[in-house]
Write the structure tokens for this entry.
Amino acid sequence: MNPAARSQANRALALRLLGGVAAAFAFGFLLVPLYDVICEATGLNGKTRGAAVAMADTRVDTSRKVQVEFISTTMPGMPWEFSAGEPRVSVHPGEITTVHFRVRNMTASTITGQAIPSVSPGKAASHLQKLDCFCFKQQTLAPGEVRDMPVSFIVDARLPDDVSALTLSYSFFAVDAAPGDAGRS
Amino acid sequence: MSTGSIAAHGHDDHAHHGPTGLARWLFTTNHKDIGTMYLMFSMIMFLIGGSLILSVRAELFQPGIQIIQPELFNQLIGLHALVMIFAALMPAATGFANWMLPLQIGAPDMALPRLNNWGFWLLPPAGTILLMPLVLYLFGIGTGGADAGWTLYPPLSAQSGWGIDFAILALHLMGISSVMGSINVVVTILNMRAPGMTMMKLPMFAWGWLMTAFLLIATIPVLAGAITMLLTDRHFGTHFFDAAGGGDPILFQHLFWFFGHPEVYILLLPIWGFIPHILETFARKPMYGYKAQVWSLVCIAALSVIVWAHHFFTAGMPVQALIYFMYSTMSISVPLAVLFFCWIATIWRGSMTFETPMLFALGFIILFGIGGLTGLVLADVAADAQYHHSYFVVAHFHYTLFAGGIMGVMAGVYYWLPKMTGHMYSEKLGKAHFWLTVISFNLTFMPQFFVGLAGMPRRIPDYALQFTEFNVISTIGAFALGLSQLIFVYNVVTTWRGKGEKATDGVWEGSKGLEWQLSSPPPHHSWDPQPVIK
Ligand code: HEM
Ligand SMILES: [Cu+2]
């Protein structure tokens, strides 16, 4: 092959490979929505639905009892006190239950927070249906304000038999501050 | 490899040389010059990365906090790993590719010489950007270097200081550099081979590098995407990994390890390529199972992109996913075992001699074998719950990356140094270097298996009293290991400067392959015209 033809061929192949690089870069970003879709479809990762269920299966299965435990956490940079009214409740599948969580803003400024729920074990996540939840919207608390916030939920009757206890966890994040600022302040 | 027709092309081509001094190195497009720069850069960064971790080992000599505060400790471990992986091991492999691929496949140079020059010159600025925040911190300026480990997991990496931003920039530069290098390697191998050299006559080193290059092209951009998302999360209000905004920190682990697991093979495939050349040379037998080795390399590269989640089994996954990632991970050991089998069969009943490159190659096989076997243990989901994030993992990946990576590279350096410089290194110093390295390496890392099994977590500056003895041994071993490497540096540098007797063209009695048909050192422009392979 003469040098000119070869350098032509080299450049063409290099460009094709560069196309491969661009495709791989795009693929990396494609993984983000893909990951969410997979988590949502399978209930992996304890992700629960972000909004109230329109219709829940309310046949009560009185033959079974399930323990639901609550965990409340505030993330770094979130100066609120956050606790569950009761640490756990025992419910029949299909039964509507309402519990309360309490937050208190311990600072002298108004702060907005967002609670993020998570359920474990992951396979129970899609069976814990929230009818109403403070996590559906942001909460804004005036200095020193205390608020009691309800969560109404149903553990639906299709919960797999081997699950006898599940944990509902809420983490409260400060909304205004970017995460980088929160850690450094 | 069949013999080529050699054009006698001596040292009489000084006319092409052009600029001398610094300008020669800055603007060079010659594959041998660029290869030399890569190898020198790699050696310097190896020493820097080693010094970082020796200060860590000094702190771990005794329980309690003596000399290094936790903030600094966290910077040192992460920067050690980033330096070793991206600035020492990867550039060493690229250095060999530059030096040897054109010689081995009978090409006059790399296919894209200008790109080659840029690829190298991105590295020194990248290394500086990575380390500068640490240096400034030592003078009391700023928030310090990247301190979230080499894996840069959020939320920690989203919260810590601007060392992370510098590390992200450095990783981008090093990533671009290695993608450029990979494109060059693929084009060189596919387009520049000597006439008659079919793909199934390629030297094994070229096959190893070809697989590495494809993996780099496929996975470095995913890492680039992940750290870009991290950057925008930190500064521009996105929430890719921020749970408060609907993101998910576990997503980062998926993206990171989609790159990270193939990366461990990226580091090793070139070495698995040239180790068989060393074995066949010193066993004076043809390489066993050429085809089996080629297909094993291809299989390993393909499998390596579908097993990533074994790095975070404990982050919580459904059982089905755990089982899938466990078995797919374990399946990689099948082609790996084929490679081991071929290596052993190559030296089986050979008339072996034990020059330094062969010693390092044999040490590589045994110690890397331990690394692979302990990897199988970690791939067991049930066992990993106990071993994850313990010193057992640290020991595992040092048996793969130090014994498999660095010692493999050293085998290559000793093997090709006479070819590159035209002079023999000191065999006595080489052997001393080997034995000191093997002994102190095991002294350093063997205790870490036990201390990990006993429950000592990694990435921690203080530890419980019962782990003291193991850590004392490990620290003594580490300092011995570090000091032993100075013998290597001395041996290489003096050989480069012309000490030692003149090397013959073949250098080794049993050497095979095109590079050994050129003079030692090869002329500045070689294989022009190209040899013809029959
Ligand atoms: C049969 C081969 C191998 C298997 C089955 C294997 C398996 C594993 C597993 C399951 C882990 C995760 C352990 C944990 O964090 O709990 C791990 C970690 C690691 N392995 Fe391997 N491995 C193998 C070979 C290798 C090779 C060849 C390399 C490098 C060249 C390597 C480098 C690493 C590194 C760097 C880590 C730790 C990463 C980190 O958390 O910082 N492994 N390995
Ligand atoms: Cu892996």
Chain A has two helices and nine strands. Confidence is low (pLDDT under 50) at residues 178-185 of chain A. Chain A has two domains: 3-42, 47-175.
